[in-house]
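Record minuted for completeness.

…
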Amino acid sequence: MTTPDFYRRVYCVMGLPIDAHTVDSARSELIEAVRMGRRYVMVTPNANFVAICQRDSAFRDSLLKSDVSLADGAPLIALARIAGIPIHERVAGSSLFESLCRHRLDNPVTVFLFGESNGIPERAQRNINGSAQGVVCNGWYEPEYGSAEDLSTPEIRRAISSSRSDFLVVALGAQKGQRWIDKNIELINTPAVCHLGAVMKMTAGIVRRAPSFMQKLGLEWLWRIIEEPALWRRYRDDALTITRLLVTRLIPLALHRSRKRLFAVVDYAPQLRRIDDSGVVQLRLRGTWRVDDTFQLRGELTDIAESGKDVELDLADTSDMDSGVVGLLLILRGHCMRIGARMTVVGASWRIRNLLYMMCADYLLDPVIGTRSLAPVVAEQRAVGETETTRDVAIAEPEPGSGTLDPVGASAVLTEAVRVRDADVTELR
């Protein structure tokens, strides 16, 4: 298991974490991940993903467990713009793969293709190895038809792992593909994994990608319908769902933000308080939280994730949060699901509940149920007697006489709390 990167430029867009990447930055990060051999699960949400998430919580949860989430689709960029979220460039999975193939590398990224049928993976392999400069395809597997569970066999995992590839490209359909990745990611040795939908067909020459002018105009969906007419029903249904969410959630969110600016609503200084006991970390957020105020919060979330403990998030005194802060909480939720830890949100006021509803992230209020047993050291702590460590951090300059810590004092508390906690655990061991 790897610790999530809480220093990502991630935002909540229609209930999903979306990273503010460009094609070049996403390609560079992918190459760095495979060179280091670290786990790197990519997802490429688009309007169809948003629509599916409204009815399939398991699919939505699989997206939260990813290491990077790229905005694949002009509608998602438009929705982010309406909400005032600084995500300006679409990073389609097909664009990323094309960029990776064109980018000259001394040691090309090795790719394994899994999915599709009728000889498509084999044709895609020939085309990649005949022209690509940054990618070498060293294997493919064309599975029989079946569910994600049917395709989660030791034989398939051995075929993928024995290829020793850097990058696994999956093409099984969005829901089945994500379910397969979720079930098998910890059982294969391929560092980077992504479901790339139509990329395999495009690489094999079965379908053509839209001309660049249609991509720039946000009309690639129309070209896809021309290429694959059966897709028109999916696009129709997605459009109806997105329109409903736009009217009932996103526009009210934009009006809420505009009203706050118009009437100069006073923000309260953000503060966090962390309480550690033997098996649970309680994190209390107070005041108004903006993405610019999250440096200490990102550090705390990283530390909490590394501890592997259950999490209780107290929002009783939180007055407001922007999409950047909610994006970090979505990453935390995904990490807790990955390691089987519990995560609960308590004390959320009506204001915060309504804010999360408008962001399509009100499912954050649903508890994540832990599925793993306590570590031996935690059980030993409970047998001897629970210890508790408290941290207070004031993010902004406090008002005189408020009694909160300044940033220097907060840093001292953090250092001392870590020393005390480590000493307690060492003594117990």
Summary: The CA atoms of residues 98 and 133 lie 10 Å apart. The chain has a mean pLDDT of 85.
